[in-house]
Zinc finger HIT domain-containing protein 2
Amino acid sequence: MIDILKKVQNEDIDEEELVGNEIDESIDSDDDIEIDLHERIKDLDLNDADALWNVLTEDERNEFEAVVRGDVGSVLPQWEPWWMYKQEARLVEEVPSSGDDEHLKKCPCLKSVPKFTTITNVKPSPAISFNITNVVASYAFIMRYFNGEIDALETITHILDICQNLSSNTNFNELDTAIESVAQKCLQSELIETDEVSLEVMKHDTFLILKGPSPDNNAYYCKAALSHLLEIFDQAKSQLKTVTKENATKSEGIFSKKFPENMSYLPKLDIINLKFCFISQLAITASVCAEL
């Protein structure tokens, strides 16, 4: 909400045809508005939309409503995926760049997972690498779909809607079919609206994740993506346990009534499946990936 208001305020100044002192006065006024907004929200819980709504002026509320009922995507900055970074090729004797290490710190933290051989004595299926691709492609699409801002329960619901390996334990024997499966599920989904351009971006993102930041560290992005998924699954599992209780006791404020967070369209998830099936399968996948 705050990002939208600040963006609208900045655009208002850019569009005004002002000259001389009027420009300076307008900029000063805009700075005052932003400072005033900061002062009003500094002690509030930024996750409490109703509390934020209560401190907005009438003009700010009108601006926010106009944007929300229009094209929100044109106002919010586009998320830059962490897997877009590629280390430059260097000679063997060159010292590694500190910038490379700094970027890896911005990736999701790698989870500490048991090795596959400690979980089972069964030899991994040759399909495991293609199954990983199916999971990674689903993850890449959904991360962009939500512009990097994710709600765990909503994210997992959408991922399970397009990832056949996780939702139905489907095995894949080819890289292309593992990725194309995600594309087709996106087009068939009742939860997702997409187009061919977005699906091509998903395919390219999957390629970048599988390639990694560099040839000598090519599995890092894949490990990071699977680790992030494990974290999201854990959060969704916890969220699923409490969401019903919270909804029953939560009183709606003005903002919640005007902009209801209606997630009733999402299919219900089973906590048992989340706990014992999906997280276990992702843990095994991450274990295999850790040995790549």
About this structure: The two ends are 42 Å apart (CA to CA). Residues 96-290 form one domain.
